[in-house]
Amino acid sequence: MATAHPNEDHRLVIVSNRLPVVLERTSDGRWNFRPGSGGLVTALAPVLRNRGGMWIGWPGVVDEKPEQIREALAEATTGAGYSLRPVLLSADEYDKYYRGFANEVIWPLFHDLQSHCTFDPKYWIAYETVNRKFAEVIADSCSPDDFLWVHDYQLMGVATALRALDIGNRCAFFLHVPFPPIDIFLKLPWRFQVLNQLLEYDLIGFQTQRDRKNFVQCVRALAKDVPLVTRRQTTFFRPQNREVMAAAFPISIDFGEFARLAESHEVADTAWYIHEDLPHRQIILGIDRLDYTKGIPQKLHAFRAALRRYPELHEKIVLLQVVVPSRWNIPRYLDLKTEIDRLVGEINGEFTRSGWVPVIYIYRHLERRELLAYYRTAEVVLITPLKDGMNLVAKEFCASNVEENGVLILSEFAGAAAQLHGPALVVNPHDEETVAQAIHDAVYMPAEERRQRMTKLRQIIRRRDVFWWVNAFLRAAIGKHLDRFPVVEDYMPSERRPPPEQPGAEA
């Protein structure tokens, strides 16, 4: 392993499929970079900043010269206070590991859509190969006292590869997607290997208690020789006299930042123009990545059912559906987009009247200002995934709803429903009549009830924001050695610091 530099003992090392910067080639062949987006970057960059931490991941390009990539990444982190280490992949490795095993096996299976899986043995070989590559970069870059935090389904085998290299660092894992029940997990040909890989970590974090319970059920059924005990919603395993902890840590957002930006003049002005273009209409907002797990066709069917069942909604509401492009070159996703296009056309063809188009369909990425303006403008947000690890759109909408006049309609199969089920209108996305009823109820909900519900939602999210998530996980992972590592409280104003929580606590 690499020798630790002075003052770099006890670093926090983040390991994820992608680095927190995006590399792009310019027209003259040079490398350009821009900051990555998403909750993981927002949550963890402050923890690493100025504490000598490190982030290890794939830089997003294939078959490139290592020296050029490292130089570009060194420039990208100038002044950041932490370093980046790339894991370089060939085009074939990327295709079989990421597009293959990660996205044609684990992604659909863990979202209860096993009919979408392609169980190609070559995918599993590539997955193990790439996980070993990640482990080799970790071994070459880290000191024995560093704490390793590995993220998500692409890297479940990293701890096993590290142990094979005789690396004994404390190593924790967080799964951002759901963990399936035993009857689904049994479909995986490599189920024993995956379970054993996860049990090589010291801490396994899940989004919800349901995910943790599913994992425990799988261990009971498939790893009967592993003793386990559950205390206070936390499960302790003892494989080969080691202790492994499994608990739920629901990920969140930077509530304060979303609320502050939503109140800005720039966002307020953009929101005003949106409503000026849609006078006397309640906006029902849908924002989803193009993915078959998001339930977009089911949402459109339910919206059409609402218009057919409740004629009084005509010309009173507009569904503003944003679909963010994703994996556009994969046939299944192209077919999904074709289906969405067809449904939008059918609904508008059936119900459009002079001055009123019921569905406004946007297929592109939104910049932050525009996204926040839609959040602030919408009276209702409609989130209907068939399965979701968490779904941060729900939390972003609530944080941005500074007037507290919005209504959240949320699928019961989104991880966020475990926290938000009381004040949200929770629905089964497969039951279009129930979703249609929820749309009607949301549109005609009295203003005071809207305010009460949204106030409760915002309180829940504010109390357990992304900083709470990081702190709760690190407390559980590092325990008595917490004083050696940075926690997010060091970077938060005192009024925003959440109270200490027990490991695995969940609202």
Beta percentage is 15-25%
Question: Numbering strands along the chain, what is their spatial order in the largest sheet?
Answer: 5-4-1-6-7-8-11-10-9
CATH superfamily of the largest domain: Glycogen Phosphorylase B
> Which range best describes the helical content: under 10%, 10-25%, 25-40%, 40-55%, 55-70% or over 70%?
40-55%
Q: Mean pLDDT across all residues, rounded?
A: 89
Task: Give the N-to-C terminal Cα separation.
Answer: 41 Å
CATH topology label of the largest domain: Rossmann fold
Give me the count of strands.
Answer: 17
Number of separate helices? 18
What spatial form do the alpha-carbon principal axes imply?
globular
CATH architecture field of the largest domain? 3-Layer(aba) Sandwich
Major sheet description: 9 strands, mixed
Which consecutive residue ranges, at least 5 long each, have pLDDT under 50? 1-7, 490-507
**Class of secondary structure makeup:** alpha/beta
What can you see in these coordinates?
With 507 residues, the protein is α/β, with parallel strands linked by helices. The chain has two domains: 12-248, Rossmann fold; 255-463, Glycogen Phosphorylase B (Rossmann fold, 3-Layer(aba) Sandwich), CATH 3.40.50. 43% of the residues lie in helices and 17% in strands. The chain has 18 helices and 17 strands. Strand 2 and strand 3 (31-35) form a beta hairpin. Helix 3 packs across helix 4 and helix 11 (296-309) packs parallel to helix 12 (331-351). It is globular, with a radius of gyration of 23 Å.
